[in-house]
Amino acid sequence: SAIDKWWKEATVYQIYPASFYDSNGDGWGDLPGITAKLPYLKQLGVDAVWICPFYDSPQQDMGYDISDYEKVWPRYGTNEDCFRLISEAHAVGIRVVVDLVINHCSSEHAWFRESRSSKTSAKRDWFIWRPAKGFTADGKPIPPNNWSSFFGGSAWEWDEHTQEFYLRLFASGQPDFNWELSEVREAIYESAAGFWLDHGVDGFRIDTAGLYSKIEGLPDAEVRDATNDHQHPGHNTQNGPRIHEFHKEMRAFFDKRTAGRADEIFTVGEVGKCDMAGLLQYTSEQEREMSQLFNFAHTECGLGTHFRYHVQPFTLKQWKLGIAASFLFANRTDSWSTVYLENHDQPRSVTRFGDDSPEWRQVSAKLLAILEVALTGTLYVYQGQELGQINNHGWTLDQYQDVDMITHRNIIAKRYGEDSVEMAKFAQGIALLSRDHSRTPFPWTSREPDAGFSAVRQSGVKPWISMNDSFRDGINAEDELNDPNSVFHFWRAALRIRKQHKDVLVYGQDFEFVDLNNPDLFMFTKKSRDGAKTLFAALNFSSEDREFPHPNEDATYKAFFGNYDLGSAEERILRPWEGRLFFVE
Ligand code: TEU
Q1: Ligand 1 pocket test, candidate residues 207, 232, 342, most atoms within 8 A of CB
Q2: Which member of 61, 202, 207, 578 is catalytic?
Q3: Which of 3, 299, 439, 579 could join 370 via S-S bond, C-beta 3.0 to 4.6 A?
Q4: pTM to 2 decimals?
Q5: What is the value of ipTM here, to two decimals?
Q6: Domains 7-103+182-209+242-482 and 507-584 fall in the same CATH topology
């Protein structure tokens, strides 16, 4: 972590192509739309974009089901549009990171169609096929093991044509690759990554990066929820026996493919859960597997243990520890970390961790920005987060489109009924946690229908998913650009402060909590790499005034950044949702 790299100090802005900007009025965002908005991203002050999957796909899981890695989905544009986006982004100093989705492809991919064509197909073993364990009395095939899909139900899909099951840890149309075969791995690296490296991308966000290596024999998972027919596969698929070998091999492929600029290429793996030793191994510079990873400890706070939408209350202390799990492991090692609160799988952070009422929305969104710019690691901002966007309020279940929500809903309906207590509880969970809260079209203005998401309007065409009505209440780019006190301008200032004091804010080490048990205050200290500077952060996660301590009474605390007037920074009171950063001298 001692070596400076552009990708360590970068702010990466995540773009959901379906919902950023629709340049041709078909109701879907597109790549020319992203190119058109590069000036906006420059204005915000980000250094790179990570663009979610834009490849050809039947869209069962919003492009995470890829049918052709080397082709842009026609609704998003053409390959030429993508090459132009890359070169125009580079021309204004924005690097481009793309999604690498390689645990599975789409069941419409030519490789899978060939695999499925017969038991003797040359590509049969490219996917994970197993015969039924047996048949029920009424003739239904029984899956080979008890693993559940991350989207609910069995992880096995029956294929009528060849009378076998294939493994799919996600949706029915997302067959898992058989990573045991080197010819499969080589084909994946070449097509999904090599093609885009050749066209100038600067790195990859590696989807489900911990799931490729399954335990041999695919044994039943431990029964953790006896009320369910299917069990979380856990360690049988997560961080499995050959996972580090695979990542080393893949990174070696990237290095070879980008000779001359290999050190400029970075990767961020979506790992989720992992023990300390594994976190270090994945991200160590010396091990050369991935540059950094996403941990889920803080975004999974309060999720149900057996069923993610059965939300539980959680304490600020639990959340603080979850946040710290993203970077503490890397302290004074050759590993690197990430900072994020939102992405396309998460609801809006102001709603979840701040207070999205009109009274506190702006100030609590700014508080979250202060926290994030003060943490060590590569910073990720998800589209709309810079506006303080909130969850979609008042939606009915029918408005949500996510395959994860639909699959779970169908299971609950079948098991308990549409009018059951379980369904009501599910609806509550969805209102807080659905992935669709972050997937609605970006609000560009309040003066046009659908927030100006579409540049031109074709009659009868609506955006692919409902709008978040909050664009009428000032949450849109135009109104926020015109208001110097907006969340947008605060983020802009915060990103500048982060760069200005990068030695402590970006690269700082020796993080320590102050009063970890405090239920309302999130306070910590950390040092610059050379130990010369000490930062103290004091953040009030409540809507009431709170007194706070100075951890060292002999030192002087100089406030240099905050979301209220710093004039009264000497006071030991934090106002509702107030945060302040100090240098300790
Ligand atoms: O997510 C994988 C993942 O680890 C899950 O936790 C996911 O966040 C959860 O099921 C949400 O309900 C990645 C992508 O980020 C996600 O969008 C895709 O659906 C998934 O992989 C399959 O490719």
Answers
A1: 207
A2: 207
A3: 579
A4: 0.98
A5: 0.97
A6: no
